[in-house]
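Translate structure to sequence.
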């Protein structure tokens, strides 16, 4: 998603908790940034953080 889109999501979501069910790579005017953003709350997720979540999910077998 576009970086501005992630910011909008973040604004809309506020401070509610989110377990970041899905991520998307963030880009800025067509250039990919290194980060991912949650498609639900717009939180910034670094690649290590994203891998951590995916790893934890695999272990717990949460779909
Ligand atoms: Zn989230």
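Result:
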């Amino acid at each position: 998603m576009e970086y501005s889109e992630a910011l909008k999501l973040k604004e809309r979501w506020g401070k509610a908790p989110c377990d970041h069910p899905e991520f998307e790579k963030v880009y800025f005017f067509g250039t990919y940034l290194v980060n991912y953003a949650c498609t639900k709350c717009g939180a910034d997720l670094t690649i290590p953080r994203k891998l951590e979540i995916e790893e934890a999910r695999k272990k717990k077998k949460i779909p």
